[in-house]
Design a protein that fits this description.
Blueprint lengths: L4 H23 L8 H17 L23 E3 L9 E2 L2 H15 L5 E7 L2 E8 L2 E7 L5 E3 L2 H4 L22 E9 L2 H13 L8 H9 L4 H6 L3 E11 L7 H10 L9 E3 L2 H14 L7 E8 L2 H7 L9 E4 L5 E13 L4 E13 L2 E7 L3 H7 L2 E2 L2 E7 L3 E7 L9 E2 L13 E4 L2 E4 L5 H11 L12 H9 L14 H5 L2 E5 L5 E5 L2 H14 L4 H7 L7 H10 L3 H6 L2 H5 L6 H12 L1 H12 L7 H4 L24 E5 L7 H10 L3 E3 L8 E4 L5 H9 L2 E3 L1 H10 L2
Parallel strand pairs: 2-11, 23-24, 23-25, 25-26
Antiparallel strand pairs: 1-6, 3-9, 3-10, 4-5, 4-7, 7-8, 10-11, 12-13, 12-16, 13-14, 13-20, 15-18, 16-17, 19-20, 21-22
């Protein structure tokens, strides 16, 4: 008998509800209602019914978690509210100092919430009317990568929020949930066991594995790895019931079917928070996932608003980092690696040792003077720890364990890459050859980065392949990539069964890279200068040069005294700039970039130039410019502007761009859907512009 339409609807709805409840029971309540095998059986049954009845499709169905088609590349999402970093403290005295600052600013001791800091990848999940609409990585705090397709494959993250669980509140119209996606220890171990059986390189640690999974262009990879999620914060919220405390917000999330950390505790006093930090310190090693600290925040949202924000971090929250775990192993050798600026950094090779949950074979030794100060020798038994529980480093040797056969570590007399001479400046060693192959490879990886020229799709592995295949031998080659040759290169990917397969880069990927490179040609002088990997020339110094010189020709013609006359440029740096920009190698690099159509004119200089030509240094910051000397906050969605480009334009006119509103803010530029920053600006009586006023002001000062 053919089932009726009504019975099919009921059957499909029942299966979807059962699978959703199973996910919530496992990830939120920690009380599984069925084994994985039974879950998989029901999921297959639902998928069969949906395939046979496509008119009953639902984007929030549990079957939509199964990895879909590979995507061509990641687009970016601007966070409605920035995802700021958290200040750290490494001892209880530092924590007490933070609490005292909060108490002094508020006039009383606020209640707190202590929450274990899961070692994962920060994401923001956006729900509209209860449905998952978008997911983005933290990125630079303002803009992140759209990882929605990969996040949909994670069972721990609800595709649709629940409004019918016990104690669940009414759903907001818009809700952004901030949290950590992480890889449980059992899953990390499972993947590495399988990779070992296939004679493949093992994953270094769970956090890196999580980041790599989220950045895979194939959602099937995310579907094959059982990532988990824990919510810990909020972004934009529109509508819904009033929620006054972070602890109440966590309860609300739990009611809506979102996993939160059951180890989070409310603390009435700082002493209670310290007790929570100390008790958790003894527990954290036994948890089924990585934890690198305890986050303590002021509970009341109104108190958080009073405390406010610095440019980088909220004042109402701090992360207590536990002392790094140390292990003892043997130092068996030292390798000198060449960085993009020619710096030679010593890297220790050691007998493998497990530190903070991952196997460590290499660690930094910082520089030759640090090696001499600590008297570290090859053959020593050494103490190793992870700085910030991320970067392995050799802390100290154990002299009492020496046999007498240990060898003093001597610095190299020539570059290990090009064989040219070495120079020393302070504690650091440098390769003096600007044409060093190792330097170029590292500079190339820096050049394409998001905060530099932002050529999307060119990861480190592909850069290495392009150099090894002699497709790219200088920066300019990135702007005229041979489509067929690059498309024929191979890259690794994971199948749905979790096996590694080799596939060609492909024409679509190459087309996206070429399109991104074409766009990058117009980023202007400041971005180009900051992308070249020149010593002493970072983002800030690049903007200083772009404000002072109209184009790359003027930069190359400048003398050391011209550079030294600029703000924050000292004698040593000025001499370095003059030598670098007049060198034959740099002249050839810049000439080839210009030939490829890369814009080498300064937007910042032009914006302050008079119609008749250049302006002199004394009149470079005209008082009539409405942006000069102003601290400006950008908030909401701006239709006509890219936020990063707009920030650079305003900085070029003498403004300072801040991430938070305070009494020191002069102007808030608010786009659509502006949230708490706009409200705070109104409360403080700060001048507020909409996008139309911004357009008029920019046009009036061109």
């Amino acid at each position: 008998m053919v089932p009726s339409t009504e019975s099919l609807i009921v059957k499909i709805a029942a299966l979807r509800d059962l699978l959703d409840r199973a996910n919530t029971a496992y990830y939120v309540d920690a009380e599984p209602i069925m084994p994985d095998s039974e879950y998989d059986r029901f999921l297959r049954e639902l998928a069969t019914l949906e395939q046979a009845n496509p008119n009953f499709a639902d984007p929030a169905s549990p079957t939509r978690r199964v990895g879909g088609k590979p995507i061509d590349g990641f687009v970016q999402i601007t966070h409605r509210q920035p995802m700021q970093s958290i200040d750290n403290t490494y001892d209880l005295d530092g924590f007490r100092a933070w609490q005292s600052r909060c108490e002094k600013a508020l006039g009383f001791a606020p209640s707190l919430v202590a929450d274990p800091k899961v070692d994962g990848v920060a994401v923001s999940l956006r729900y509209e009317h209860g449905r998952l609409i978008a997911a983005a990585t933290r990125g630079d705090g303002e803009v992140g990568d759209d990882v929605t397709e990969n996040v949909r494959a994670i069972r721990a993250i609800p595709l649709r929020l629940s409004s019918n669980r016990k104690r669940s509140l009414a759903l907001p119209d818009v809700l952004e949930i901030r949290g950590e996606i992480y890889m449980p220890n059992t899953e990390f171990d499972r993947i590495n066991r399988e990779r070992m059986e296939r004679n493949e390189p093992l994953l270094a640690n769970a956090r890196n594995a999580t980041a790599g999974t989220l950045k895979s262009l194939d959602p099937a990879v995310a579907a094959s790895r059982r990532l988990a999620f824990i919510a810990h914060g909020r972004g934009e919220r529109i509508g819904g019931p009033p929620i006054d405390r972070h602890s109440d917000f966590l309860d609300a999330l739990r009611g809506w079917g979102v996993p939160v950390n059951h180890l989070a505790v409310k603390c009435a006093t700082s002493d209670e928070a310290i007790a929570a930090i100390e008790s958790f310190g003894a527990l954290r090693g036994s948890l089924p996932f990585g934890v690198d600290g305890m986050v303590v925040r002021v509970d009341q949202f109104a108190d958080q608003e009073v405390l406010g924000y610095t440019e980088k971090s909220p004042r109402w929250i701090v992360a207590f980092k536990y002392p790094a775990e140390r292990e003892i192993t043997t130092l068996v050798g030292v390798e000198w690696q060449v960085g993009k600026g020619g710096t030679l950094t010593p890297r220790a090779t050691m007998e493998p040792v497990v530190v903070s949950g991952s196997t460590v074979r290499h660690a930094t030794l910082h520089n030759i003077e640090e090696i001499r100060r600590k008297d570290i020798r090859i053959g020593d038994r050494v103490e190793v720890e992870k700085a910030g529980e991320v970067i392995p480093q050799v802390v100290a040797p154990i002299p009492s364990a020496r046999s007498g056969a240990e060898l003093v570590i001597e610095p190299p007399v020539e570059c290990p890459s090009c064989g040219q001479g070495i120079i020393q400046e302070g504690p650091k060693l440098f390769c003096a050859n600007p044409n060093c192959p190792a330097q170029f490879r590292e500079r190339l990886k820096w050049f394409v980065g998001r905060d530099q020229m932002a050529i999307e799709g060119l990861g480190e592995r592909l850069i290495d392949q392009l150099v090894d295949a002699k497709i790219v031998g200088r920066f300019a080659d990135l702007f005229r990539l041979p489509r067929d040759a690059v498309a024929a290169l191979t890259t690794e990917s994971l199948t749905k069964a979790g096996k590694v397969s080799l596939r060609k880069v492909g024409e679509k990927t190459v087309d996206a890279i070429i399109e991104s490179a074409i766009e990058a040609r117009g980023r202007g002088l400041a971005r180009v200068l900051g992308s070249l990997g020149i010593r002493h020339l970072g983002s800030s110094a690049s903007k200083t040069l772009a404000r002072a010189f109209p184009n790359i020709g003027a930069v190359q013609s400048a003398s050391a005294s011209d550079f030294q006359a600029l703000e924050d440029v000292g004698e040593v740096t000025a001499a370095s700039f003059a030598k670098e920009f007049s060198s034959p190698a740099m002249c050839e690099t810049l000439r080839s970039l210009v030939e490829c159509g890369v814009d080498m004119t300064s937007r910042e200089f032009k914006s302050r130039a008079s119609e008749g030509g250049e302006v002199d240094q004394a009149t470079r910051w005209p008082n009539s410019d409405p942006f000069h000397g102003k601290t400006i906050v950008l908030t909401g969605t701006l239709v006509a502007f890219d936020r990063r480009d707009l920030s650079e334009t305003l900085e070029g006119r003498g403004a300072k761009i801040s991430g938070s509103v305070s009494a020191k803010t002069h102007l808030v530029i608010a786009g659509s859907d502006a949230g708490s920053k706009l409200q705070k600006a109104r409360e403080l009586g700060i001048e507020i512009w909409d996008e139309a006023q911004l357009v008029v002001a920019l046009g009036a000062t061109e």
